[in-house]
Design brief:
The chain is of the alpha/beta class. The protein has helices at about 5, 15-20, 35-45, 60-70, 110-120, 140-145, 155-165; strands at about 25-30, 50-55, 75-80, 95-100, 120-130, 170-180, 185-195. The protein has 7 helices and 7 strands; from the N terminus they run ααβαβαββαβααββ. It is globular and about 45 Å long. The structure holds S-adenosylmethionine (SAM).
Length: about 200
């Protein structure tokens, strides 16, 4: 694994472990940064599978492509785009992963709708994210965000669950793993698209 990909990783969890990837699957990482999770996914799904990363930042795409070349990964592609408007066709992947990026989006319903669109029927999402306890007001979340960088816009647990259900997911779960600020948690978020979608 390219050391630079590890060093560039600023995420909050381990989405590879969360998603339980299998040989031959097609995976998409939202906000792929330096590419560590895409490279780990590519290794996990093997040569019959494929891993995409999407990121909106040219510097990160350049770094990720360099890291893929150093790692000799042939089954990866890094695409420029926004997670609110993914540059992939419908039903393109089996699994969507992401590490601490969805909380950064100012349009989370669009992100969840796009995840559902690019997943195959019965596809799954397994992401790490920052999630607020339900009782925190938007002002309280914003005040914690001023201390902890990018977490001001985090959804609450029940907002996340409702958002996934509204986007067409089932088997939704949002589980806190560790507190990152008062009432704000690193969380594992999982859901499955309807098999008949
Ligand atoms: C906190 S870093 C996480 C990078 C990587 N997931 C990791 O764990 O190392 C956030 C990344 O998401 C990208 N990003 C943030 N908002 C985005 C958006 N709306 N669309 C696409 N990429 C975005 C940034 O360019 C950056 O590379």
């Amino acid at each position: 694994m390219a050391e630079e990909a590890v060093l560039a990783s600023l995420g909050c969890g381990n989405p590879i472990a969360v998603a339980d990837l299998r040989e031959g699957e097609r995976v998409l990482d939202l906000g792929s940064g330096g590419g560590i999770d895409v490279l780990l996914s590519a290794r996990r799904v093997g040569p019959s599978g494929f891993a995409y990363g999407v990121d909106m930042t040219d510097d990160m795409l350049t770094l990720a492509r360099q890291n893929a070349a150093k790692a000799g990964a042939g089954n990866v592609e890094f695409l420029k785009g926004e997670i609110e408007d993914l540059p992939l066709p419908d039903a393109a992947v089996d699994v969507v992963i992401s590490n601490c990026v969805i909380n950064l989006s100012v349009d989370k319903p669009a992100v969840l709708t796009e995840i559902a669109r690019v997943l195959k029927p019965g596809g799954r999402v397994g992401v790490s994210d920052v999630v607020a306890e339900d009782h925190l007001s938007e002002d309280e979340r914003a005040s914690r965000g001023s201390y902890f960088g990018c977490i001001a816009g985090a959804l609450s647990k029940s907002e996340y669950e409702a958002g996934l259900e509204a986007a067409g997911f089932e088997q939704v779960s949002v589980e806190f793993t560790h507190e990152v600020a008062d009432g704000m948690h690193g969380a594992i978020v999982k859901a499955v698209t309807r098999g008949d979608a």
